[in-house]
Design goal:
There is one protein chain. By secondary structure, this protein is an alpha+beta fold. It contains two helices and ten strands. A hairpin with a 4-residue loop joins strand 8 and strand 9.
Length: about 200
């Protein structure tokens, strides 16, 4: 039986995805047995300045609370509940892979003169050129709902997610609505359970 071996090589330039278009939001919540509704005022949590960034998060949280049946009143007004809002953002440097790669395809064939045989194939790819650096943002939103009388905690939750290539003030504009919507999805939620909201 005569063996014949055929080797082929091909170059192929392809694009590869470097990051997902969006990231899921991780949400954890804790609650009392009963989470009532009523008037609620928003205020910064301890250590949070009442500045433009806070206002973006407060607007998103206020919208989410209104959809859950609460009635917003100005901070300092008499209300049944108080929602304390906290947030934190940090930059995460990321090295992207090169968007181009070379694929090397190889194949072998073994058989006899009658045409029978087995073909085997394989391939490997590697990036062309250097990747580039980008800066992603990891942002966390926390909300504590307390009864105003006695400052008794009723509900607490936190949500975190990432944004690709977003820095500075743009982080709050992009992530605040997403974090607030995820945080109050299925409100009040199961106490102590961490879920992912896409």
């Amino acid at each position: 039986m005569r063996r014949a071996i055929l080797l082929t090589a091909a170059l192929m330039v392809t694009g590869c995805a470097t990051a997902p278009a969006s990231f899921p939001t991780e949400v954890t919540r804790y609650r009392a047995d009963e989470v009532g509704r009523g008037t609620i005022a928003l205020m910064p949590d301890e250590g949070i300045d009442n500045g433009p960034e806070y206002q973006v998060y407060a607007l998103a949280v206020g919208d989410a609370l209104t959809k859950q049946g609460y009635t917003l009143v100005p901070d300092g007004s008499k209300s049944v509940y108080v929602a304390k809002i906290g947030f934190h953002t940090e930059a995460r440097p990321v090295r992207e892979r090169s968007p181009f790669s070379i694929g090397l395809g190889g194949g072998t064939w073994s058989g006899n003169r009658d045409g029978g045989g087995v073909g085997l194939g394989g391939g490997v790819s590697f990036p062309i050129g250097r990747g580039r650096d980008r800066e992603d943002a990891l942002s966390m939103l926390s909300v504590k709902i307390n009864q105003r009388q006695g400052d008794l905690g009723v509900w607490e939750g936190r949500a975190q997610s990432r944004a690709i290539g977003v820095v500075g003030n743009a982080v709050a504009d992009k992530l605040a609505p997403k974090l607030a919507a995820a945080l109050f999805t299925g409100f009040p939620g199961e106490s102590g359970r961490t879920i992912e909201v896409k």
